[in-house]
Amino acid sequence: MRHWGYVHFRTGLKIVSAGYWCEEDGAGNLTLVKFFLDPIKKIHFNPKKKGWIMETTREEYASELPEINEITTADLFECLRDGWKDYKSAPFVGLFFSAFYVLGGYVIISVLFFSGDIWWVMPLTVGFPLLAPFAGVGFYATSCLIEHKETVTWRRVLACALMERKRQIPWVGAIIVMWFLLYLLISHAIFAITMGLSALTNIGGSLELFFTPTGLGMIFGEIVVGAGFAFALFTITLLSLPLLLEREVDFVTGILTSVRAVMLNFGVLMVWALIIAAIMFVSMLPGLLGLFVAMPVLGHATWHLYRKLLDAPVNGKLHF
Length: 320
Prior knowledge:
By secondary structure, this protein is an alpha+beta fold.
């Protein structure tokens, strides 16, 4: 019996496919018959053709990073307009990815109210937007397809989201989750410190807690800490997620590039951060329903902002 297979290994900036062909004897022992290198081929079994075939795959090189551009506040509003155009071009994508976020919010709020721990509403309300970059991949992929004048379909967008699980974006996702959990831990500590002895009473189900001087102090502390966490997350994810989606770079390079871009355009991007915070806050007021519009528009707008900060790659090709 013949056995074909392939493995990948990196040589410098290039990922090479190594194919092998083995023969199996009656005792189950394998003998290597042929071993070859091919940078653009892979071997797999095709059930329809009932045989092993070689198929061409894309060559993967570490992408060269372009220079970071300086932008103005006028560019921010242009990105918002472009984001709105992308949302109108493919509204089904925006509604689909936003639905997970909105439904997740409803689940969290329902659990909190039914459990009686109402005080958790404040830290989760402040921290909930920290998870927004998760939905960004779908929006970035959609804007990328529109930019390349490709047809936006469920298959293309979902294929991109599924392919990313084997690349670098999950590492950034892990950082986001850990950041959110750390924020919740610190938020709980703020509650314990500010409430003092009153925490020994049954105040978990009382909204009056938030309107006492102590409660207002706790809210102020939650907002300040939440703003700090949001700024740090904004800095590392602004460019890293779209950059990792489009180019072959590792997540550390993506994060460092994002930080450099924020530092270079600090004033303008702080305005952008305030715009995001204001839009997200207002969209959450009508029972989170505003997120069905706010999240897609901001997601698409972020892609266009990424494109203004980093020029498009020369002869850039889609990998999804």
